[in-house]
Amino acid sequence: MRINSSYLYRSVVVLAILGAVADTVLFAVALLHLATGPSNFAYELLNVAVHGSIIETVMVAVASVAAALLRQGPAIFHGFVMLLASGFTGGIALGLFWTGSGLAGIDSTRQPARLSSMIYAIWGVGSQLWPIPVILTVTAGIVWVSPSLRSTWSRRGQQATLQTAS
Fold first, then answer.
1. What residues contact 51, with CB distance under 8 A and at least 6 apart?
2. Which is nearest to 131 in space by CA: 51, 43, 23?
């Protein structure tokens, strides 16, 4: 049974998009709970959402590398999309981290507990999202190199065939 690689790639991307929607809902619910004060439930939701985001990023990265190696669309397009996504997610992670760390420096005894918990949650999420832009940037590099990898593999395959034939 032969699996259609284009169908597999699209399926993985659709699963990642659905997961991203679920993560967005988890982030929103967690922040709504934190707006009322510190909440273990909200912190657990944030933790699940952050780890889900990283898993979805890895899924899309693997699917993009596989698609580029299997010649599913131009490698430059896949690489550009990964690099663009890396810039956006990196900016979001850095912005959350800087905002949270800047606000965390304010005297917490003069703030309501719900504001402090929200600030530390924003800071924590920003610091936990750092692997996503790194994964996407590395993926973009692999995807852009994939045409030369394909040609190297095909040349080695041809050499191996010639050696076994002689």
1. none
2. 51
Nearest-angstrom CA–CA distance, 152 and 135? 24
What values do phi and psi take at 36, rounded to 5? -95, -5
All residues at 6 or more sequence positions from 70 whose CB lies less than 8 Å from its CB, including other chains:
5
- Are 49 and 27 spatial neighbours (Cβ–Cβ below 8 Å)? yes
Separation between Cα atoms, residue 53 and residue 47, nearest integer Å: 10
Q: What is the pLDDT of residue 1?
A: 47
What number of residues does the chain have?
A: 166
Tell me if 66 sits within 8 A of 143, measured CB to CB.
no
Question: What is the value of pTM for the model shown?
Answer: 0.70
Q: Look up residue 89 and give its amino acid.
A: T
Determine the average pLDDT of the residues in 93-115.
78
Through-space distance between the first and last CA atoms of the chain, rounded to whole angstroms: 33
Q: Which amino acid is residue 1, in one-letter code?
A: M
Largest CA distance in the chain: 83
Statement: residue 3 has pLDDT above 60: no
